[in-house]
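Continuing the batch. This is chain 6 of the set; chains 1 through 5 are on the previous pages. Same settings as before, nothing changed between runs. Recording input and output for traceability.
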Amino acid sequence: MFDAKKTANEIIEFIRNYYEEKNLKGAVIGISGGKDSAVVAGLFTKALGKENVTGIWMPCHSKDEDKNNAVELANHFGFELKEFDLTDIYDNYVKQIVQLNNPDMNDLIDSNINIKPRLRTATLYYHAAYLSKKNKGVYLVAGTSNKCEIYVGYFTKGGDNVADIQVLADLTVDEVVKVGEEIGVPYHIVHKTPDDGLSGLSDEDKLGVKYSEIADVLENDGKNTQEEVRKRIYNLHQRNAHKFYTPTYKK
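Output for chain 6:
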């Protein structure tokens, strides 16, 4: 049975040990208003102290609810939250793509969705470099992806899969929720329906499967999941295999 308290303590110790071993100082975390970034922020605040954690809220045609949750989370754990609005940057980016290519706008849907996490990742690393120089110690960008998302490739290459340290990558969504409850993440945030904040759809709507079904495939070989759903999950994993490694020619 999953022990949320034990796991939370182990993650906190994992962070502290790594920072001490590598002589690091702080962490920069993209705060979306959702459960994953909330749990990561809580864990790093407990591990490093609130003064060494900086959250970045990066709206891009985003919902007010997400901003309110981000602000509430920062106040709850006491870390600094900066707002870096990407809306105009994104709009200008799309405008230039349209001018260069005169595309059918339906052909840009996936490109438009995926450029947002790439812009956000660039913003996080920009801040990490700035804070490292300002505070005379290395700041890492903390990843927020969980095990279920990673398995089916539900992330953007060059975007939210890029990080310097991952603490949720071996936890299913349900386990993330339990750890969040254990460390005191506000209930309505840790139980918030997960979505990418980009497409207007929930994660499960976009994937066509439930996170609990992905977890069952990962932990029980899909014994409690219908065969049709199992196949879809395996197909998602295989279809997104190109995201997991870079083929490299060796002489």
